[in-house]
Design brief:
2 copies of one chain form a homodimer. Chain A has helices at about 15-25, 50-60, 75-85, 95-110, 115-125, 150-160, 180-185, 200-210, 215-220, 240-245, 255-260, 280, 300-310, and strands at about 5-10, 30-35, 40-45, 45-50, 130-135, 140-145, 150, 165-170, 190-195, 225-230, 230, 235, 265-270, 285-290. Chain A is α/β, with parallel strands linked by helices and about 325 residues long. Chain A has a single domain, classed as CofD-like domains (Rossmann fold). Helix content of chain A is about 40%, strand content about 20%. Chains A and B meet through helix 3, helix 4 and helix 5 of A and helix 3, helix 4 and helix 5 of B.
């Protein structure tokens, strides 16, 4: 390894798994994980950052790997009682998970930035790597659908992605700044690689790219930029990526992912199942790197992290 | 019964039991329960109203009668996780109880008054009687001790009443107004009785009396005013009343209670164990009414409520 710094961009579940692999492989001081905050929202007065929480729970080993989201050994007593008190029930708040939202909300109201809050909460749970929100300003993903413009969590959780999506927007992005940690990582002289984790390109990565200056900086970066495809064999490994790509007019395959990131990456990691698509990716001027990209175990995460870093040459 | 209205003033546990008895005996439209908010405070950003919660939990049947506070079938998952996240542990927040604080905090921040929030939360739990905070303004009980001036919850929960109390103050009381419901109940033409529930006179009832106009109004009221002694046979039934009365120079007996409420009540209900003290009370110009005042069962609460209403002649 080169000793140079690695910047990982990620959203929730799939991205968090690779982030955990990178954190297992790299010394903490060599890794910056920048996380989507476009999914953030307020629910019963609590500041909720779903992707940050997923990354924090995944890296701390607290996540519920069976249910696929939230904290293991979760219970739902507060949720049931909130229902009795007439509060909305469409977004699930587990008792253990609630602690995170309560602590975050409290500290934000006391004047800390989301970056500061995230750093201290992650440190409390023993995470050494830097987990950084993409911005400390409010940016909110909106999905324009046939049923109107929906807040992301409404679309994703309450409506379970049923409305047909026509476009996606990131309210507040133009007025927002990349967080200090994100800006600093992009500006590092020893930046050795940017890894775009296998998260939804439209919902989880585009919010980061929509922040002022980020797309331009990525496009002009000398360091290798490697994305890991969240699409394997024409299907999303997790979540609504495939349905959404179809509705937005993209081809649901690794070539569609390559086109989406065109100009921003040098290499696309694709699964062995998509080996036949490599020439089409290379025809776009990108290197196609084949590796097992489905992460079922911790060993899978570590192996994919190592393959990604090897592709980037760090 | 006369059909006239009953105004009950109360604090936490002991007072809440009599309030529950009154609610069981009186039609909802004839009862107003005004509750101390001097114990209210913010903890990890949540607005907590301990006495209101105790009254709400007691009247809704949710309270934990074994532990003596909070909600039955409680769990502590959020609390444990808050501890891992570095939040303070000295004030216990159960998972079911948290729902109340989250909902209250949310609604207060949305602009509802504490009166409105309390009314809607109590109604959600099926409570018909009016439970009304003494004020919608911030009033905070402070205990001046040999260790300095302590916020009430610090004194009561964190310090477990160990510091020697020298005086008690109610910060904000002079600038506060009685809540609309409290003011309206005091002004009712059909007010048939005021019942001071067996709560701590210094910590739970004095805050209500410290609000502008309340003491004068009570002192001049034509309707019968009956207090139920929280002291039985020289001991507090619950909580720090006895220790506090000693430290503040009061005699820890029903005569001490009678002196404390002198000029504000017509009758003091005392337990059968204190029958011998009746002449000393009557020497102060108050009627002493003897009844079983220790409430172990629901039947005890109902019986004491009936005895109190009978004494008041409503």
């Amino acid at each position: 390894m080169s000793g140079r710094h690695v910047l990982a961009l990620c959203g929730g579940v799939g991205g968090a798994k690779l982030a955990a692999g990178l954190a297992a492989v790299l010394p903490a001081e060599r890794l910056t994980i920048v996380v989507n905050t476009g999914d953030d929202f307020e629910h019963v007065g609590l500041a909720i950052s779903p992707d940050i929480d997923t990354v924090v729970y995944t890296l701390s080993g607290l996540s519920d790997t069976v249910r696929g989201w939230g904290v293991a050994d979760e219970s739902w007593q507060a949720m049931a009682q909130l229902g009795r008190l007439g509060e909305p029930q469409w977004f699930q708040l587990g008792d253990r998970d609630l602690a995170m939202h309560i602590a975050r909300t409290h500290r934000l109201r006391e004047g800390e930035t989301l970056s500061q809050v995230t750093a201290s909460l992650a440190a409390s749970l023993g995470i050494a790597a830097a987990i950084i929100p993409m911005t400390d300003d409010p940016v909110r993903t909106k999905v324009e659908t046939d049923d109107g413009v929906l807040d992301f969590q409404r679309y994703f959780v309450a409506e379970q992605c049923r409305p047909v999506a026509r476009a996606i927007g990131f309210a507040g992005a133009l007025e927002a700044q990349p967080s200090p940690g994100f800006a600093a990582a992009l500006a590092r002289e020893d930046l050795g690689a940017v890894i775009i984790c296998p998260s939804n390109p439209y919902l989880s990565i585009d919010p980061l790219l929509s922040l002022p200056g980020v797309r331009q900086r990525l496009a002009s970066l000398a360091a290798p930029r490697v994305a890991v495809s969240p699409i394997v064999a024409g299907q999303a490994i997790k979540g609504p990526t495939a349905k959404l790509m179809t509705e937005l007019g993209a081809s649901v395959d690794v070539v569609g992912v390559a086109r989406h990131y065109h100009g921003l990456i040098d290499q696309l990691m694709i699964d062995e199942a998509d080996r036949a698509e490599a020439p089409a990716i290379e025809a776009l001027g990108l290197a196609a790197v084949v590796a097992p990209t489905i992460m079922r175990s911790h060993a899978d995460r570590v192996a994919l992290a190592e393959a990604t870093l090897a592709a980037a040459g760090v």
